[in-house]
TrEMBL record:
<keyword id="KW-0175">Coiled coil</keyword>
<protein>
    <recommendedName>
        <fullName>t-SNARE coiled-coil homology domain-containing protein</fullName>
    </recommendedName>
</protein>
<feature type="coiled-coil region">
    <location>
        <begin position="8"/>
        <end position="53"/>
    </location>
</feature>
């Protein structure tokens, strides 16, 4: 019986030791779970914060893309306006230049006619005078 008592006492001590170890492990697990829950909360907060930033970036990107599109449209409209103005001014300049050349041509013709008329008069006067 003594052997059985020693064995029972030894088993009781081992059971107590195992229970202490189990309790210690339970506390470590609870501490680890609490720590993991805090980390999960922190990660969730970070994810929410990043989601908000991504949403803002997405909105800003779309606003920027709209801004670029508007500027491109304005640039194209401005370029068309400038091209039209240049074409108009060039056409007017060309038209004025052609009109000026026509006027000079007509004046030259008039001068030629007057020169021929004067020459003809000089010839008539010379004939009349007998030169």
């Amino acid at each position: 019986m003594k052997k059985a008592t020693v064995t029972l006492e030894s088993l009781d001590k081992k059971i107590d030791s195992v229970e202490f170890t189990v309790e210690s492990l339970d506390k470590k697990i609870e501490t680890s779970i609490a720590s993991l829950n805090k980390k999960i909360d922190s990660v969730e907060f970070t994810v929410e914060s990043l989601d908000k930033r991504i949403d803002r970036l997405d909105l800003n990107f779309h606003d920027f893309a709209d801004f670029i599109r508007e500027n491109m449209m304005l640039r194209n409209e401005t370029q068309e306006y400038i091209d039209d103005r240049i074409e108009t001014k060039f056409s007017k300049y060309t038209s004025d230049q052609l009109e000026f050349q026509d006027n000079i041509g007509k004046r030259c013709e008039n001068v030629e006619h007057e020169t021929l008329a004067l020459h003809h008069r000089v010839v008539l006067v010379e004939k009349h005078i007998g030169i």
